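Can anyone check this?
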Amino acid sequence: MLTPAQLLQEFVTLWVVIDPIGTLPVFLAVTTGMSAHQRRTVAIRAVVIAFVVLALFIALGQIVLDAIGIALPSFQIAGGIVLFLFALSMIFGHSKPENEIAEAERVKQTSVFPVAIPSIASPGAMLAVVVLTDNDRFSIAHQALTGALMALVLAVTLAMLLAALPLYRVLGTTGSAVISRVMGMVLAAVAVDAVLRAFVSMGALPPLAP
């Protein structure tokens, strides 16, 4: 059973990699010129598609690991490194809004790309849900709990998309970029923690202090 601290860490990880605030400018760029009903339809479809994609990664991630024969610590270390690089791109590279609005300008015909993928269900989010559920490899309860936390973050994402215009007027592109970089710092810390805990599980490091 997950402790409250572990639940909070998983929630923060999912919030950071899904990044609801950073998705707002992408959504607005894609839905420019659409009616309120069309915006609502795009938002709902995008969140549903993202949920299905991430749920598949939660359900099948362990099966794939077992089939390939990859040890969990190896996957945790690889996942931590990739998440860390993803975090660095959020901090030092083009911010999520700036980067994905450019894609949105070229592709405005569907809610699948770029709103559902890669803005909501990003590669970092796909990898994160596998890493989180593989901490207890055979625990269905852990998978269900991670899925519930993911659904909560996606529900907040949907609510923010439905209220996108007033929210974006408050935040602006600059505000969204600043928040995205702060989230990158949090994600970097989470990624380092995942790598350290993998070394602890291998016996290469002593247990980490709480």
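Reply from J.R.: I decoded it. The two ends are 17 Å apart (CA to CA).
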